[in-house]
Amino acid sequence: MLIQFAEEMAELWEGAYDSGSHSNGIYHQNLRMEPMYEAFLCPLTKQIMRDPVTLENGLTFEREAIEKWFKECRDSGRKPICPLTLKELNSTDLNPSIALRNTIEEWTQRNEAAQLDVARGSLTLSSSENDVLQALEYVIDICRKSRSNKHIVRNAELIPLIADVSKHSSRKVRCKALETLRIVAEEDDDNKEAIAAGDTIRTIVKFLPHEQYQEREQAVSLLYELSKSESLCEKIGGVSGAILILVGMSSSKSENLLIVEKAEKTLENLERCEKNVRQMAENGRLQPLLRLLLEGSHKTQLSMAAYLGELVLSNDVKVYVARSAGSTLVDVMKSGNKEAREDALKALNQISSYEISAKILIEAGILPPLVKDLFTVGPHQLPMRLKELAATVLVNIVSSGANFESIPLGPSNQTLVSEDIVHNLLHLISNTGPAIECKLLQVLVGLTSSSTSIKNIVAAIKSSGATISLIQFVEAPQREVRMAAIKLLHNIAPYMGQELADALRVTVGQLSSLVQVIAENNGISEEQAAAAGLLADLPERDSGLTHRLLEERAFDIVISKVVSIRQGETRGSRFVNPFLEGLVRILSRLTYLLDEPDIVSIVREHNLTALFTDLLQMSGLDKVQMVSAMALENLSQQSKHLTKVQVHPQPSFCLSIFPCLSKQPDTSGLCRVHGGLCSVKESFCLLEGRAVEKLVACLDHQNEKVVEASLAALCTLLDDGVNIQEGVMVLYEADGIKPILDVLLESRTEILRRRAVWAVERILRTEEIAYDISGDQNVGTALVEAFRHGDYTTRQTAEQALKHIDKLPNFSGIFTKKGG
């Protein structure tokens, strides 16, 4: 029984100690330069002893092994026995065998040195996969045996060789080399430095995006180990792409969880270097930078604020930063020294450039200190470069579209659109340099872009008498200043068009500058669109301004630009449409002064009737179609005055008595509607210009304004002074009767109903058409509605129309007077 127990215990014990060591042991044996003596081996473990001890019977074992043997004897309820003799022992005292231990250590050192030499020879790119793997396993084994062996590996200069074989053609070798370097580096700063001494870190980083996850895993694990050394953090971050790749790995949803965890921990270690924190911020990992901004030393906070101002941030990140650090940056801007305020302003400039983040900064209280910095003068005022920066931030804030009427700037409850504040802005614009002028003009552009605040700004401009000074900026040599001024004037023109027109008439140079801007041929710019829009918004019936524009040859330039755009010679600019709209509106000014012969000559010279007719087909540009139709209305109203009516000689006495003998006058070639010789160029005739069909097509437009203008133009064919009967027939032949009736039936606006009732009454004067329409109950109902609910003139007209279709008795007196 005793023998059986001893054999079972020995087998279990030997199995526990030999597991996984066989192949490596063979490699060690193959590398030994000196023979191994049997006395070096523990009888139990069959391994070289590190701490030999002797029993009372003189036999020697490894201390750990014999202690475990005795414990197992006790646990089984037996007295301690010798594993070899199986005889009971009187004592379990263990006597260190110092001499043997020293001998083994000396022998081990000699052999390990020899083994390292052999391993060194195998650690080459030309060695076989098996030789390199065995050498690497040996290095791992000796490092795990003792931390002091890591010093031996370093002194044996194996680290560069291991790093080199990480470039081996074998994937197994590459993975094992990275693993070996990690084990060599663990808890040994000197080895970490040795690994980083060459180009190894760059090589490791190249493995991070590798397609094989085993290599990625080993690379990021090694990099994590190296990042534990603070002195290496900057070097790791200095490798191009290292932080970018790590950030991507740490946030990956598809990566191995261990790799994600190691990447995250590596980044946390690298955060100890400010340069790395900046790189992380550049690559979307902002938390470290914001943490230093909020919690770092004063110097660090300023450094992070300054760097934040240099970053290019996505809109989502701007919102995140505004919420996380907006209040801190505003506080620094309010109370820091000039350097700190500059850094804070740079950061706020970056963050405020997105609408949502700008509104968050408004909630954080940015407006009061910002405006104060701009308006403060004297010894405490900011340097001009910082005022310019503050003005830039204010431009961003204003562009957010917030309701500035409800945001107080201080205890006086003044707001950014209060009269005094606007006066201060205008004063500052007139008494500062171009850079700040430009920004403050842009602030006013932003404020006047809001329908809620523009009236306040316009009132302040009027009360300050700043109109002339603002117009003078149109001649500014700096393009940005000039463009901001033009955009501002464009915004306020609908509210103070006459004041601007008066100023442009009497000042020298500004009108010419606007025309020159429109005439530029370098594509179509925002400035050109704004200049055209500004001139378009000025009162169209201002004869003086129109003649000034003629003097500047503005209309020649405008016509050339319109034709160029219409022919497709100018494309690809997002400002083409607003530019074209402005040009057409400028051109339409001429049609409001057709009582002046020189204007008529210009319209004839450029055949503007044909041009406006062509522009009716600009589908999608509602304003262009509307203004073109309005211009055609104005032109067509002059046709009856401009048509050449033939004058026939008085018949002789005989012919007057016998008219049958006279020759009837030749009416061929005469205009059916105007009764004379008409042409699109000379008399602006809609029939000759083939404009009727195009105007009829516009009656189906979704935009009521386009329909109103088109119907008004068509109504000129039914006006007094023309052949109404023929005008009706022209509309009939152009399939225009039904669209006009549809306008009446829909009555989308009061103007459309009034105009449609007028046109229908004229159409119903033709008996055949009246007879056909009388059976349409919908038309009758629409006329009755107009008769009941329209204004006085509409009701009168509707009454006449109802008589035409026998819906009212044909007697007068229903309306004897207004209000009757």
From TrEMBL:
<dbReference type="InterPro" id="IPR000225">
    <property type="entry name" value="Armadillo"/>
</dbReference>
<dbReference type="InterPro" id="IPR016024">
    <property type="entry name" value="ARM-type_fold"/>
</dbReference>
<dbReference type="InterPro" id="IPR052608">
    <property type="entry name" value="U-box_domain_protein"/>
</dbReference>
<dbReference type="GO" id="GO:0061630">
    <property type="term" value="F:ubiquitin protein ligase activity"/>
</dbReference>
<protein>
    <recommendedName>
        <fullName>RING-type E3 ubiquitin transferase</fullName>
        <ecNumber>2.3.2.27</ecNumber>
    </recommendedName>
</protein>
<dbReference type="GO" id="GO:0016567">
    <property type="term" value="P:protein ubiquitination"/>
</dbReference>
<dbReference type="InterPro" id="IPR003613">
    <property type="entry name" value="Ubox_domain"/>
</dbReference>
<dbReference type="InterPro" id="IPR013083">
    <property type="entry name" value="Znf_RING/FYVE/PHD"/>
</dbReference>
<dbReference type="InterPro" id="IPR011989">
    <property type="entry name" value="ARM-like"/>
</dbReference>
<dbReference type="InterPro" id="IPR045210">
    <property type="entry name" value="RING-Ubox_PUB"/>
</dbReference>
<comment type="pathway">
    <text>Protein modification; protein ubiquitination.</text>
</comment>
<keyword id="KW-0808">Transferase</keyword>
<dbReference type="Pfam" id="PF04564">
    <property type="entry name" value="U-box"/>
</dbReference>
<feature type="domain" description="U-box">
    <location>
        <begin position="35"/>
        <end position="114"/>
    </location>
</feature>
